[in-house]
Every structure is written in C-alpha cells, then in structure tokens.
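Task: sequence design from structure.
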C-alpha cells in the first residue's frame, strides 16, 4: 500500500472514531513525529529534506569521496569545454 493510499485509509478510519482520548493520542503521536521531522532544506528535485535525511546524504557523499567516486573541479571544467 502506498503512503497516499494509507493516508486515505487512515483518514476514513479517523472519521469513524468518536473516542476523544483515542483521537488525542493519535494527534499527540502525529505532532511528535512532525516535531522530529522538521524540514531543513530541499533536494535538487525540490523534495523536502529533514535533518536525518540530510545527515544520511552527507554520509553517502563522504563515502563516495572516500571511494574515489567524484570528479575534480579542474576535470569538470575541462569536460565542460567539450559540451
């Protein structure tokens, strides 16, 4: 089930809940999750990025650099001359 389908399913279920205590617990869970996933930036594709996603992307970039999977500024400039 996609996240969009799941959201729609949950929305339908929430409409049927009458117990205020349960609704407050769900609200508290969602607010707690939102607090931990504050958007701190965006990817080059315009997707929101939280702190954990940013950290993961930094770790991945460092690993690529350490393994030699990068292009130097000079090489990039030389390559761009041929575009």
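Answer:
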């Amino acid at each position: 089930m996609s996240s969009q389908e799941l959201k729609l399913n949950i929305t339908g279920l929430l409409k049927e809940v009458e117990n205020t205590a349960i609704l407050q617990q769900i609200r508290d869970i969602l607010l707690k999750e939102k607090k931990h996933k504050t958007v701190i930036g965006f990817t080059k594709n315009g997707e929101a990025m939280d702190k954990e996603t940013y950290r993961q992307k930094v770790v991945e970039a460092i690993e690529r650099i350490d393994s030699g999977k990068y292009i130097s500024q000079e090489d990039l400039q030389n390559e761009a001359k041929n575009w």
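The beta strands are 39-42, 48-50.
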